[in-house]
Amino acid sequence: MEESKKSLTAESFTSAMTLTNSGVPQVPDRYILPPSQRPALGSSTGTRDDTTLPVIDLSLLHQPLLRSRAVHEINMACKEFGFFQVINHGIPSSVVKDALDAAAKFFDLPVEEKMLLVSSNVHQPVRYGTSINHSTDKVHYWRDFIKHYSHPLSKWIDKWPSNPPCYKDKVGKYAEATHLLHKQVVEAISESLGLEKSYLQEQTEEGSQVIAVNCYPACPEPEVTLGMPPHSDFGSLTILLQSSEGLQIMDANKNWVCVPYIEGALIVQLGDQVEVMSNGIYKSVIHRVTVNKDVKRLSFASLHTPELLDGNNAAAYGEFSFNDFLNYISGNDDFLQERFIDTLKKSSS
C-alpha cells in the first residue's frame, strides 16, 4: 500500500528544477495565474519600488545607551510594515554561506535522491515538495522546497537529509544561530509593546522552529506565475535569508513593495502570532515571491512558533494551534482573500 502511494506521488510530481533543467520555453498551463494575480513585472501598476523599508542595526540592542533607540525603531517597523531587515545580527557570514551552499547541493541532487523525502502530507516533520502542495494546488507555484523541524535540533536532525553529506552540519549551525537570533528579536518586540523583555522567554525556548529551504529556479515566463502566493506566516516571527531579490510585501495601501537584497542582512517578518500577542497593534505581513528569468534564487525561511500567554485585555482572536494552521493551508489555496488569522477574529459586538 505504501509503495503504491509513493508511486502515485512520484508519477504526479514534476519539480520546478526539473522543468528548468529540461529547457522548457514556456511554463506549463498549471503554473499560469489569472491576469489579476500576476506580478506585473516591469510595470508600476500595483507595485512600488520607491518605498523606504526599515533596516535596523541589531548591535544597538547590546549597547545600554542605544538599546531604547533600536526598540523604538522596531516598534515603528512593526506598526507600519510588520517587517524589517536587520544588519549586524551576529550570525557569521561563513555560517550563512555554508547554509546556502548546502541548500544548493541538495537541490542539485538527482531527482531520485530527493524523491525519497517527497510527501504531500503537510504534517510530515521532514518534507520535500514543489509548489505549496503539488497534490492539491489548483494553480502551481514555481518553487521546490525541503521543510523540516529544527528545534530542539537534537530531536530532529537525524531525520534531515543525509545527502549532501554536509547538509546536517551546515544547515544545523544556521538553524541554531537563527534560533538564538529569534530570542533576541522577540525580547526587543516584547519591550516595544511595553512588556518585560523576558515576557515570552519560556514560551520561546519551548516553542517550535521549522525551516523551509526554498529553491526558485530560473523561469521562462516570470510575468505569468509566482514562486509563492500572497500569504502571511503562522508563527511569531520568520527570519528570512535570501540569495537575491524576489520577496515582495504588501503595504498598508495594498501596494506590492519589492524588498531589496542587502548583502549580509536578514529579514524579519511578523507572523500571525505576533498580531494575536499584540491584540492587533502589530500586523502580520502579507508577502509573496516573484521569480526571475535568468537567476535561481535560494532562501531560508526560519519559522518560529512559541506558545502564547493570555493578556489582561479582551482577546480579539480565538485560540488556535499549529495543526489548525496546517489543516487550513492544505485545504485553502486563496491566501489573499482570507488569511488564516482572519478566520479567528472575534466579533466586537
CATH superfamily, please?
A: B-lactam Antibiotic, Isopenicillin N Synthase, Chain
Report the CATH topology name.
Jelly Rolls
Structural class of the helix and strand makeup? alpha+beta
Can you identify the CATH class?
A: Mainly Beta
Q: What average pLDDT do the residues reach?
A: 86
Taken from the alpha-carbon principal axes, the silhouette is: globular
Distance between the termini: 52 Å
- Helical fraction equals 25-40%
Biggest sheet overview? 8 strands, mixed
* CATH architecture type: Sandwich
Number of domains: 1
Q: Order of strands side by side in the largest beta sheet? A: 2-3-11-8-13-6-5-4
Please provide the count of β strands.
Answer: 13
Unreliable stretches (pLDDT < 50, length at least 5) are 1-10, 309-317
Rg on CA atoms, Å: 20 Å
**Beta-strand percentage?**
15-25%
Total number of helices: 10
Helix and strand run: HHEEHEHHEEHHHEEEEEEHEEH
InterPro entries: DIOX_N (IPR026992), IPNS-like_FE2OG_OXY (IPR044861), IPNS-like_sf (IPR027443), Oxoglu/Fe-dep_dioxygenase_dom (IPR005123), Plant_2OG-oxidoreductases (IPR050295)
Pfam families: 2OG-FeII_Oxy, DIOX_N
Subcellular location: Cytoplasm; Nucleus
Family: Belongs to the iron/ascorbate-dependent oxidoreductase family.
